[in-house]
Amino acid sequence: MSLKKRRKKLGEERLQRIIDLCMSIEERGLDPFIVDVDDVIAVVREYFPDWELPEEFCLDAEAIHQLASIIKLQSDWVKHRSTSLYADPFLLEEKIRRAGKEEFANIFLKAWHPIVELEQISHHSLAEAIKYWQSLLPLSERWMKFVSLKTEAGTATREELIQQRILAEKIFSEELEGFWEELKQNVGEEDKVLYWDFVGADTYSETLRRAYMTSFLVTYGYATLEVHRLEEEMFLKPFEKPKSLVGEEQLVSIPVSVSVEEWVKWKEGKRG
Amino acid sequence: MKRKSYYARKIKRAVHLLFYRHHKKPGVKGWELKKRLGADYPKVLNILDNFLEKLDLHIKTVFEGEKPAEKPTLEELNRARFYVTLRGELTPKETKLCGWRIDDIAGLAMSISYIISKKGRAPREEVEELLRSKLPGWRVDINMNRYVRSGYLAEDENKQLYIDWRTRAEVDQNVLVDLLLEAES
Asked: ipTM > 0.90?
């Protein structure tokens, strides 16, 4: 091994030792004055001209960083010692262990100035409380509602659970994909369809369900909304493949009102 | 005359803000006082404090970090929290009226002093061990939880205890340490 290489290796080892020492002092709360800052700086300075590779410079920077942490600990220690709060911890601990209960309480009372505070009720909270009290049913009536009916334990089939809406017929992603296919089939030559023509259904509840699913189609990148503000028209355009729009462009939320009035208007327009 | 009534009105408003609890914690933040009383709220508080002195009460300012060495700036005051505290001392008989037994007070004093001696942080286990030497074991856990709940001590996820907001507002830590060191025992 050449002399230069051997010197570099030695320098790396010394810097690593400095880093380990600083870290253990910080982690274990040891006396920060164990580290002689001048000595460490001399070592860092001695080997600095030898460093050539990025890793070597990183090690050098890490040593300086750890040394800075130690200097901060030393500074905190000096600051604490200089405050009037500082007392020899061993002496203080000894006093705490030796002082009697009453003596301790009496000492504390000389240094204790409790906060004066009042908890109050305002006109507003009083009025709210009265309103609540008036609408509160008697316990006998309230408890009646919680009397559970005793039922025999039994079995239920998957179909029954679907019927009772405890289980979904399809998993959501499957349902969404199906809905996407339906949208693709509904678009005309222009590859788009009027929002209401796609979402609207014979019943209002079905219309709401379709509007809900459509919102996921747009959010998840299966389709997009084309809004013509002047004509007050809105089109749905399906994509051939789902697009991930996050991060590519600024996403905007478009609120669409699917009220009963809108639905009735659409139905009448369809009939006419 | 106009000036007098201006401050009288502001002092009344300050009393309402300081004496009645508005948030989860008692006390009012400086910026809140500034919003309600105007930019000259330090002057209003000063006049109120002089008045409260006759009633043995005091407006205590607790700064966000350490207490500034010089006159605090308006910025520091805005970030500080203001409380009304007792100016003088409570007698042991009076503490009973506040719902504190001598054991509870001694336990609190021991815990705070021990944490101070450990530079502001001590494991709960160590503090409890210390309390167990003077108090019945079954009271130690109850008391410790009470100190934490009331805001005298704070506990982190590593079960380390710290001095919390109520101790900073109510306890003159310098006086406590000095008196303890002067104690004859």
From this structure: no
